[in-house]
Amino acid sequence: MDTFDIKTFDKHKDHLSRYNYIRKDSTVVEQRTWQFGYEEVIMPKNNLIHIFNKYNEDGKLMLTGDFFPNDFEKGIWKEYDEQGNLIKETNYDTPYKFTWEEVLEWIKERNINMESDYFEIYRNAGEEEGEKPIWAITWEKEDKSSLRVAILDGSTGKVQKEIDQEYPLDE
Question: Cα–Cα distances in Å, from 118 out to 105, 123, 143?
């Protein structure tokens, strides 16, 4: 069972109870406390998907899963009890027959700049009656005149809608 290294964390944490470091393979690890223990985000180099781990106050793993930052959970997330027994698995990819990898291929085929501050990938599993799963990709148009939004069918990848959108207003 995966455990959190409390001793190392306590030795290196800053005044906000955070500890960030880079592994030899260039993976970035961000650790912090939360109300009932510790959290960790692992960001492998050259991978858009990050790993989230949540530990209890004793450093025992409670929850783990992959995610696309600020937008959605991916794949199978696992929850554990205090003894380390797997108690629940949730597969967030189940409704999506058009996969994450196929979405990335769709983006690459269109030469969409994923480094832009305006780039987003969002998905919705269609929890409401009659709704279907969708992927929504937002990017800055090459001429920087506006943003472009494409809504893809989550099952087929077919473009359902593609529209231009104004830049968000600065707050």
Answer: 19, 16, 14
